Amino acid sequence: MTGIRVGQGFDVHRFTSPEEHRPLLLMGCEIPHDRGLVGHSDADVMLHALMDALLGAAGLGDIGQHFPDTDPAFKGADSAQLLQRVMGDLAERGWQVVNADVCLIGERPKIGPHRQRMRDRVAPILGVPSESLNVKATTTEKLGFTGRGEGLAAQAVVLIQRG
Ligand SMILES: [Zn+2]
Q1: What spacing in Å lies between the alpha carbon of 16 and ligand 1's midpoint?
Q2: Annotated binding residue at 145?
Q3: Is 33 annotated as a binding residue?
Q4: Within 13 Å and on the Cβ side, how many CA atoms surround 71?
Q5: Which of 1-5, 144-148, 156-160 has the weakest average pLDDT?
Q6: Catalytic activity annotated for this protein (predicted)?
Q7: In whole angstroms, what is the distance from residue 58 CA to residue 135 CA?
Q8: So what's the pLDDT on residue 69?
Q9: Quick one: 117 exposed, middle or buried, by C-beta within 10 A (0-12, 13-18, 19+)?
């Protein structure tokens, strides 16, 4: 079967307290910030949204099914490695990524200075040039849980193809 498919993903993680000193990981990159994110894995909210978009496009469910947060094997898991496994599942079925667009939702940290590093880190895992992986961010105008700085959300959209 040939064709193109689209998928979307969304994820949310709560910030730790500043005393916990958990590193903040976004798109597989450590980002300097006074707080990390709470999660069973490394809590990389942007990669989680991206994986859900990829699994969705391929009709393979969601990351909760593939990497259950009740499974001790995934405690502290490196989300970049989980993304590699998702890409393996897609490749087995003949799917390749065309492009991806990932959006971080929150007031802080600002990711502008880290945007290219994030693209350079994740694009090779997706098997695309870095210009085919867009990374962007928005605030919620200080409204809601992201506006109050309680956590971060991320959305992703991907297009995949097989020929
Ligand atoms: Zn997550």
Answers
A1: 14
A2: yes
A3: no
A4: 9
A5: 1-5
A6: 4-CDP-2-C-methyl-D-erythritol 2-phosphate = 2-C-methyl-D-erythritol 2,4-cyclic diphosphate + CMP
A7: 21
A8: 86
A9: middle
